[in-house]
Amino acid sequence: MNPSRLLDRSTSLLVVIDVQEGYRDKTVDHPRMVRKVRTLVDAAAALRVPVIATEQYPKGLGHMQPEVAEGFPAGTPVVEKMSMSCCGQPGFVAELERSGRRQVVVCGIEAHACVNQTVHQLLERGYQVHVPYDALSARFADDYRIGWEKMIGSGAVPTTVETVCLEWIRTAEVPEFKAIHRLIK
Fold first, then answer.
1. Is residue 81 annotated as a catalytic residue, yes or no?
2. C-beta separation of 44 from 177 below 8 A
3. Which residue of 12, 14, 111, 117 pairs with 44 in a disulfide if CB–CB is 3.0 to 4.6 A?
4. SS (H, E, C) the chain
5. C-beta of residue 92 within 8 angstroms of C-beta of residue 81
6. Is residue 5 part of a domain?
7. Which of 18, 42, 134, 143 is catalytic?
8. Active-site position among 36, 114, 134, 143
9. For this structure, is 114 an active site residue?
10. Is residue 2, in this structure, part of any structural domain at all?
């Protein structure tokens, strides 16, 4: 694994957790979170960073919000789950292992529940986990804050969407710079 706490797009993977219709406008600053998750999805697509998405109990919570799903690169796996942690779903673990990536950027809903438990289990499995604060949310502000603090206190790398994007490109000399710059303006 890359010992650096800087992201490397060749070893990174993006995980989008449960940005589903059932949560629409029910989380803290929901439009901002959806916009920032979509920015990460678009950046990952432009830079060929693999994406894995999950949906918690889609029968009850609906499917991924189209504003996010429409940006997924072709072939993006969307794994249905019942466990809070994505790692509790064998299909997710198989996709993660198949990727061969060891740096995981985790975003989505809810910071104190599915995101928190996934981050902790990824850390336990030896992954370097980056959590962009502006691409998370929860239904209640206290849960958002405590979920964030717990993940960072446990060893996840705190970050933002813009930081992720800039670390993935590293220099304005890469061909994708203008596309990424447009995304984060």
1. yes
2. no
3. 14
4. CCCCCCCCCCCEEEEEECCEHHHCCCCCCHHHHHHHHHHHHHHHHHHCCCEEEEEECHHHHCCECHHHHCCCCCCCCEEEECCCCHHHCHHHHHHHHHHCCCEEEEEEECCCCHHHHHHHHHHHCCCEEEEEHHHEECCCHHHHHHHHHHHHHCCCEEECHHHHHHHHHCCCCCCCHHHHHHHHC
5. yes
6. no
7. 18
8. 114
9. yes
10. no
For tokens 């239904």, the residue is 139
- The sign one gets for the Cα dihedral 156, 157, 162, 166 is negative
pLDDT for position 185: 86
Among 36, 42, 81, 86, the active-site one is 81
Q: pLDDT for 49-76, tens place per residue?
A: 999 999 999 999 999 999 999 999 999 9
Q: What residue type is 164 in one-letter code?
A: V
- What's 65's domain CATH number? 3.40.50.850
pTM: 0.97
> To which residue do tokens 């962009």 refer?
132
Which amino acid does the sequence have at 176? Answer: E
pLDDT digits (tens, 9 = 90+) for 134-184: 999 999 999 999 999 999 999 999 999 999 999 999 999 999 999 999 999
pLDDT for 1 beyond 70: no
Residues spanned by the domain of 47: 12-184
- How many domains does the structure of the chain reveal? 1
What number is the average pLDDT over the span 24-38?
98
